[in-house]
């Protein structure tokens, strides 16, 4: 008997934005934006600078309240607050690394899992036994994550002593320590070299398939990923779906192949309606270098 293909996610599963609008005075940052991030998928958001990508993330995290529209998470209304994201199963990385300089690498990762700590603040303050057990458990889980990301050797090092690419992995480990069902990655490839970006791509592509055991239930829920990124090679290689923003509006949605061939994407990046031009037009690594390091630059 032929194997039955797994059923697609229900329409109300995962994160959904419905007609989101954001205005800052007379500036329209987002205009009627709708998108879905189904469970177990990687969805990318791309667009030129100023297209509204960061504002979109800030709406999902509760830093910005939309003027119109609504959000749902697994079919229920979502009213996000930055201090309650972990309880909702949402974690986010920043464009930088945002690590705590006074903590070791392992302690930074442990900080991401404090929402699952069984002992409360008073227990920790009084040094009670259950607080010690909690700390040992959190450290063991942090070391397991660091090993999974290939940086366990740096567990006891201060973040400031590590290369930027390693610090980026520490930030990712801290986000994963919260066992999110939805992970928001804000330009994770920024500042990385070509080889580091390729390694990052393998990590991101594997996130929906990794074990993500939820505290209390023991269930392994898939981790969805919403990715904002300028490196098109990375986006095209890891995303199941891509949403293109331009001037705060969704101008295209589809698979990487569909987006690559969409004239609206070319127009958004180039400012011209030329279907024959390539849609993969963000600046090259050469263009991203400081001017005094580019080939042929004046001394």
Automatic annotation (TrEMBL):
Q: Where is this region: Disordered?
A: 271-299
Which Gene Ontology molecular function entries are recorded, alphabetically?
A: ATP binding; ATP hydrolysis activity
List the Pfam families. Answer: ABC_tran, BCA_ABC_TP_C
Q: Where is the ABC transporter domain?
A: 15-272
Q: Quick check: keyword Lipid biosynthesis in the entry? A: no
* CDD domains noted in UniProt: ABC_Mj1267_LivG_branched
Keyword hit for Ubl conjugation: no
Write down the PANTHER family for this protein, in alphabetical order.
ABC TRANSPORTER ATP-BINDING PROTEIN, CONSERVED COMPONENT OF ABC TRANSPORTER FOR NATURAL AMINO ACIDS-RELATED
List the protein's name: ABC transporter ATP-binding protein
């Amino acid at each position: 008997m032929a194997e039955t293909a797994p059923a697609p996610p229900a329409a109300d599963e995962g994160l959904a934005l419905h007609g989101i609008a954001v205005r800052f005075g007379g500036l329209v940052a987002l205009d009627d934006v709708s998108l879905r991030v189904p469970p177990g998928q990687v969805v990318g958001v791309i667009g030129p600078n100023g297209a509204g990508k960061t504002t979109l993330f800030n709406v999902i995290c509760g830093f910005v309240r939309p003027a119109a529209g609504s959000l749902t998470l697994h079919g229920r209304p979502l009213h996000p607050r930055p201090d309650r994201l972990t309880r909702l199963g949402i974690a986010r990385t920043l464009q930088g690394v945002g690590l705590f300089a006074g903590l070791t690498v392992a302690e930074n990762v442990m900080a991401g899992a404090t929402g699952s700590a069984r002992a409360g603040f008073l227990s920790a303050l009084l040094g009670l036994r259950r607080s010690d057990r909690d700390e040992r458990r959190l450290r063991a889980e942090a070391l397991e994550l660091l090993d999974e990301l290939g940086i366990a050797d740096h567990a006891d090092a201060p973040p400031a002593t590590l290369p930027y690419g390693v610090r980026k992995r520490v930030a990712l480990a801290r986000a994963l320590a919260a066992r999110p069902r939805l992970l928001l990655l804000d330009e994770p490839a920024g500042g990385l070299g070509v080889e580091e970006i390729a390694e990052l791509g393998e990590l991101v592509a594997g996130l929906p398939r990794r074990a993500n055991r939820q505290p209390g239930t023991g269930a392994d829920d898939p981790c969805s990923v919403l990715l904002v990124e300028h490196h098109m090679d990375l986006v095209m290689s890891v995303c199941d779906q891509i949403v293109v923003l331009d001037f705060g509006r969704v101008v295209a949605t589809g698979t990487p192949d569909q987006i690559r061939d969409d004239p609206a994407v070319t127009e958004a990046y180039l400012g011209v309606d030329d279907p024959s031009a390539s849609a993969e037009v963000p600046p090259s690594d050469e263009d991203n270098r400081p001017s005094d390091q580019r080939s042929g630059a004046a001394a």
